[in-house]
Amino acid sequence: LSHSRVVREYFLSRSYKEDLSSTSKMQGRLAEEFANLLTDMWSGKSDVVSPTKFKSAVAKSAPRFVGYSQQDSQEFLRFFMEGLHEDLNRGKKGKRKMEEPPKGLTDAQLAKHRWQEYINYDDSSIVNIFVGLLKSTLTCSVCNHKSVTFDPFWDLSLPLPRSKGSCPNLQSCFAEFTQEEILDGEEKPTCESCKKRQKCTKQFSIERFPPILVLHLKRFSEVRYRTKLSTKVDFPVDNLDLSEFASGTELNAPRYDLVGVSNHSGNTFSGHYIAFCRTTGRWHRFSDSSVSTLQRSDIVSPEAYVLFYERKS
Questions:
Q1: What are phi and psi of 292, to 5 degrees?
Q2: 182-201 pLDDT per residue, tens
Q3: How far is Cα 241 from Cα 220, in angstroms, rounded to an integer?
Q4: pLDDT digits over 62-71, tens only?
Q5: 107, β-bridge pairs
Q6: Sign of CA dihedral 281, 287, 293, 294
Q7: Beta bridge partners of 212
């Protein structure tokens, strides 16, 4: 996050202070400690910065992170981002009221309605930077009626294709994520037109692309017992193009450049996280207090776990 320009500038410029919420559970302390940590990291005064106060603030925001037991970086990221958002939320307070959208809206209008409904209550710079909108299309196999819904997402969890011999790439992960799924048997939904449960297909596409796109590679499986997939997934460092996975209403899908990777080495029971980050065109490897330069050819590895892409301007 510290190597994402838009995030860094928001906190280092102290713009976040205008958005601090006095009614959040942390009363702005999590955002303040994150800003202090970024200030220390980018001041140039120290070779090593200890995030002790920041960690204490995170633990107060999400008690599951108290102590020093091992944690999942994607789960930590989600809890932290939502806590940060809560500290900076300008939206309405109180219980969320969901209104039925007007009849006859196009998909584009319905998406706009859903997004406005969301930011009425969840309106922060963190949401503006990280949250996208996912389109889900349900098609009845009997009458062909299409039912469309839109849901906000903070990150996308991508399945790893089980291909033999060849190295899968990020596009194939997205293809698997967005492929048509058949809902039958116990999973049959109720068709809005038929008014009864019918066999349907469901398919995802991306409606709104956020400025920072966080992608989680699903390396850990919960089937029978927790296992880790060490599949190497090829992903672009520059010019990630996701236009083929955009919904029909998203005419100009942006391109993204990679700014960071959270790598997990080890197994499901013990491991270590190493960060790869881009700084002014150069890449560095961060492992606790050790920092070294990184060759572009070493960025893609079987240990890549969470990818951070920044939209090209």
A1: -145, 160
A2: 999 999 999 989 999 999 99
A3: 26
A4: 888 888 888 8
A5: none
A6: negative
A7: 310
Kindly compute the dihedral angle of the four CA atoms of residues 163, 169, 171, 177, in this order, to the nearest 10 degrees: 50
Residues across the chain: 313
- Please give the radius of gyration of the chain, using alpha carbons only, rounded to the nearest integer: 21
Cα–Cα distance, 235 to 309 (Å, whole number): 11
Task: Pull the structure tokens for residue 36.
Answer: 């202090």
Residue whose C-alpha is closest to residue 48's, from 291, 268, 227, 277: 291
Residue that is written with structure tokens 């990630």 in the block: 240
The number of beta carbons lying within 10 Å of the beta carbon of residue 124 is: 22
Contacts of 163 (CB under 8 A, 6+ apart): 172
> Distance (Å, rounded) from C-alpha 145 to C-alpha 193?
6
- pLDDT tens per residue across span 135-183: 999 999 999 999 999 999 999 999 998 766 678 999 999 999 999 999 9
Which token pair is 47?
A: 């070779």
- pTM across the whole model: 0.92
User: Are 261 and 300 in contact, with CB atoms under 8 Å apart?
Assistant: no
* Residues pairing with 177 in the sheet: none
DSSP for the chain, please give it.
-TT-HHHHHHHHTTGGGGG--SSSTTTTHHHHHHHHHHHHHHSSS-S----HHHHHHHHHHSGGG-SS----HHHHHHHHHHHHHHHT--S--SS----PPPTT--HHHHHHHHHHHHHHH---HHHHHH-EEEEEEEEETTT--EEEEEEEES-EEEPPP--SSSPPBHHHHHHHHHS-EEE-GGGPPBPTTTSSB--EEEEEEEEE--SEEEEEE--EE-SSS-EE-----B--SS-EE-GGGB-TT--S--EEEEEEEEEEEE-SSSEEEEEEEEETTEEEEEETTEEEEE-GGGSS-TTEEEEEEEE--
For residue 230, what are its two tokens?
A: 């060490």
The first and second tokens of residue 33, run together, are 């400690």
